[in-house]
Every structure is written in C-alpha cells, then in structure tokens.
Design goal:
Layout: E1 4-7, H1 18-28, H2 34-40, H3 47-52, H4 58-71, H5 78-81, H6 91-101, E2 105-110, H7 122-132, E3 137-140, H8 141-144, H9 151-161, E4 168-172, H10 175-184, E5 187-190, H11 194-205
Parallel strand pairs: 1-2, 1-4, 2-3, 4-5
C-alpha cells in the first residue's frame, strides 16, 4: 500500500537540462558530454555539489567549474552553464501530481541553486510556484546545505511526511539519486520522459494519472 509519492523537480516536472547541455556543446564545438562528465566527477564535493549546497557563490562556482572541466578536456565557465538548467514545463506530469495528491502524501526533494544565483522569467517562476504548492513538503538543497544522493535528505523527507519508506514511490531522472531511495525500500522510477514515467507511476500506485485514448 502506497502512502506517499516523492518527486524530483528538474528533469521530472520539467524537461531534462541534458538537451540544453548538448546543444551548448555542439554550438561551442566542445567535447560531447563535457558538462555532464564535469558534474559527475567527484559528485559529492565538486563545484556543482558545493553550489547546490550554497557553500560557494556564483563567481566561485564559475571558476571552480572552469577548472574542473578543463581538467577533463575543455574549459566551460560555470556562469555559462547555469542558464541551461531551467528546462521546459511538463504539464502532463503536473496533472499526474495533482491526481496523486488526491490520494497520497506528496513531497519534493530538489537539488537546486541559491535563489539569487539564477534569473528566472516570470512565467517559469509562476510555474515553479504553482507546482511547489502541490507538495505537502519540499526540501531544497540550497536551503538546507545537503543534496542528493546523500541518504540523509531522503530520511528527512520520510520523517517530515510521517511515512514508511517501504510505502513510498520516488521519481528522479538520475540513477545516482534513485539508488539511496531504493536502498531505503522505496519503489523508484527513473524518468526518461512524461508518458513513460506516468505509465510506471500508474502501475506503482494503481491510479489513472492521464487521460488515455480508448483502444
């Protein structure tokens, strides 16, 4: 029996920034996946991790990311990567969230940046605010100084919701972030795209989360 569904934000309720990374690399003639490889190297203590825990400011992140990417083959300024993160809304996922909320507790664990580090259009800000309002509890890495995949952040969520992790579903677009949730006993869903994620979430919850055309 499911008690709660816990969601990542970027790459789940919005499209993945990986597409924007790939376009940027192609336009600049950079090595393929240099941004993702820089993010993944030493992922607990690299520039990205420190920025999402709000341990460094934008200027320091810019310099650290440039040095780390250069060590992997090409310099990429951190300041140039930040605008690539926003992603496009996935309204079908928000509708699924609304339907889930009618039956189960909902939570969001997001690795994000300090609020003043990235500009946001009014439209995106409204989308984020309206979506965040659908959660019973939200944990933001930049506000608590802790980020996924640190197991403590998942424990904080289940404690805040007052649920058994064995009765939770967790959605994320990164396998490294799913592993600790799975080890706690959660049912995990790796989000590739909206339809795939919704189908798996329907199977896990027994709910109808999308308007399916008759066959």
């Amino acid at each position: 029996m499911i008690e709660a569904v816990i969601w990542d934000f970027g790459g789940v309720l919005t499209t993945s920034p990986f597409e924007a990374f790939a376009r940027f690399e192609k336009e600049r003639g950079l090595p393929v996946d240099i941004i993702r490889r820089t993010n993944a190297a030493n992922h607990f203590e690299n520039a990205w991790a420190k920025f999402e825990r709000a341990e460094v400011d934008l200027a320091t992140f810019d310099e650290l990311f440039a040095a780390e990417s250069l060590a992997l083959g090409a310099e990429v300024r951190g300041r140039d990567v930040v605008p690539l993160l926003s992603g496009d809304p996935r309204p079908e996922m928000v509708e699924a969230l609304r339907r889930v909320k009618q039956h189960f507790k909902t939570g969001c664990i997001t690795n994000n940046l300090p609020a003043n580090a990235i500009g946001s259009s009014s439209g995106r800000a409204l989308y984020v605010a309206e979506t965040m309002a659908l959660f019973d509890h939200v944990i933001e890495s930049a506000k608590i100084g802790l980020r996924k995949p640190d197991p403590r952040i998942y424990r904080m969520m289940v404690e805040a919701l007052g649920v058994d992790p064995n009765k939770c579903v967790y959605l994320d677009d990164l396998g490294v972030n799913l592993k600790p949730a799975r080890e706690m006993g959660m049912t995990t869903i790796k989000v590739i795209d909206g339809p795939q994620a919704i189908a798996e979430l329907e199977a896990a919850t027994g709910l109808t989360l999308a308007d399916h055309a008759p066959t």
